[in-house]
Design brief:
Layout lengths: L4 E5 L2 H19 L7 E5 L2 H10 L2 H17 L4 E3 L9 H4 L10 H12 L3 E5 L2 H4 L3 H8 L3 E3 L3 H13 L13 H18 L3 E4 L17 E3 H14 L1
Parallel strand pairs: 1-2, 1-3, 4-5, 4-6, 6-7
Helix pairs in contact: 1-10, 2-3, 5-7, 5-10
């Protein structure tokens, strides 16, 4: 038997990548075409964006709990959220949650420690990068971190919210200048801050960056969370 995974979705592209990763990698553990039972619930991203813009993380948490309760009713055994930004609401979510969660930043920080990284370059939305979500987890593991500067944070946020959350254009391509900009920021953090790995801390960034085109080794938060959920489901 495997455990039933509940996905609390926020942005469509990140949730879809997480779901696909669980399903595609499960066959190696469970046999051809097999994967654990998975349920996904998603409120509209617009429902999240209004309280995020206001910094109202309690309301963000209430929306997450709405999904959690629906997934509990659907039979899920535990929950994941393939969205880094809204993990700022977890202190509000956890005490009232009907089910346990895998925390995306804990999963990524554990992997960073396992690989022996010393300083992580943080990328993601401006809300995530300016928050304590990853610094708290990295510091617990004696790993340092560096943030992009304010101008870089603003432009990366624009790329995420105006481009990546909508997916590729009809021809299946993302804007090459956006990829180049992220590469430029990562290169600066490598050279000026001595970062030895980069957090892909928006679950859409892995759509355009990976170990083949990143100036630093990547910590792909989307796929790492998916693999942790798969491991928990089959253990």
């Amino acid at each position: 038997m495997t455990r039933h995974i509940g996905i609390v979705a926020c942005s469509a592209e990140g949730a879809a990548l997480c779901y696909r990763t669980i399903c595609s990698e499960a066959a190696a553990l469970l046999g051809p075409h097999a994967h654990p039972e998975i349920s996904l619930h998603s409120h509209s991203l617009a429902d999240y964006m209004d309280p995020i813009q206001r910094g109202d993380w309690d309301t963000v948490g209430d929306i997450m709990l709405s999904s959690a309760n629906k997934l509990h009713a659907a039979g899920a055994d535990f929950l994941i959220c393939p969205d880094n930004t809204i993990h700022q609401a977890m202190l509000h979510v956890t005490p009232s949650s009907p089910l346990p969660w895998l925390h995306i930043a804990k999963v990524v920080a554990d992997e960073a420690a396992r690989r022996g990284y010393r300083r992580i370059a943080l990328t993601g939305t401006k809300w995530l990068v300016e928050s304590g979500v990853y610094p708290e987890q990295l510091t617990e593991r004696h790993i340092e971190y560096s943030r992009p500067n304010a101008q870089e944070r603003a432009e990366i946020n624009r790329i995420i919210m105006d481009e990546l959350v909508y997916g590729a254009d009809p021809q299946g391509a993302f804007r090459p200048e956006s990829i180049a900009y992220l590469q430029q920021v990562i290169t600066r953090l490598r050279d000026e801050c001595t970062c030895d790995a980069v957090l892909l801390g928006c679950t859409e960034i892995p759509l355009i960056l990976n170990d083949t085109n990143s100036p630093l080794p990547t910590l792909d938060s989307t796929r790492l969370l998916a693999r942790a959920a798969l491991k928990q489901a089959v253990s």
